[in-house]
Amino acid sequence: MSPKPAAQWLLFACLALAAPGAARADRLALWHIVHDQCVVDFSDTGDPAPCQSVRLGEGGGYAVLKDRNGATQYLLIPTDRVTGIEDPAILAPGARNYFAAAWRAVGLVSEKAHTGLPRDDLSLAINAEAGRSQDQLHIHVDCVRTDVRDTLRRLAAGIGPAWAPLAEDIDGRDWLARRIDGENLDGSDPFRLLAEGEPGAAGEMGRHTLVAVGMTFPGDVPGFVLLDGRSDPIRGDFGNGESLQDHACAAAASK
To answer: Which has fewest Cβ within 10 Å: 4, 65, 248, 252?
Structure first.
C-alpha cells in the first residue's frame, strides 16, 4: 500500500533536510508540507497534520513541525512564503515575531525528552543563507549542546544588553552576544535586534546566523543569550548556528 499524501510529504522533507543532494533537488520541501498539507488540513478539518500545530492570523501565520532529524527537534515555519533570514518580510512593520512563537514551542522538546528541561537547556537557531538546506524560513527548536550551555553559563555575568564579542570562541568561531531579559521573547525580536543593533547588518541579513539560548542570569533573572555569527564560505564557515544544538538532547539524560 502506498503512503498517504501527508506521510509522503513528511518523508520527502526529511530526506531533503538530511541529504544535500535531495535538498538541492527541492529546496522548497518544507514550504510544500506547510502550504499544501498542514494549512489545508487545518483549514478543512481542524487537524494540522502532518504538523504539530498551525496558527493563522494577521502579521503572518506559522506551523510547528516535528523534524525527523533527532529525537526532540521541532521546526517553526511561516505559513507565508518567507525565504529565510534575508527576507525583508521579517522586518516589515507588523511582522510576526517568529522567534517568540518558536520559544512558545519549547515545551514540545521537553515532552519528547520525557523530562522537564530548564530554560538553560533549550535553544532556537536559524542558519545563514549559505548554511541552510531549505529556502523557506525555519527556526530550529531543540536542546542546546551541554558544552555550549556550560560555556554560556560561565560567561553569563559578562554578557550585557548591547552586542559585543563573546569572551571565548565556540567551535573555533567568533560570536557576538547580547543579553535579553524576560521569560519569553515577546518583547524582543532577535531579527530586529540584529538588523537595528549591528551596523550594516540590515543590508546583509543573509550572512548572519542567530542562536537564542535560554539563560538564568545571576540573581535568578530569566532571559536569553542571543548569539550572532557571520558566514564566511571561503573559510569554510557557512553560518550554521544549528551546530550549537544537540538533536540527541544529552541534557535530558542528566535529569
So the answer is: 4
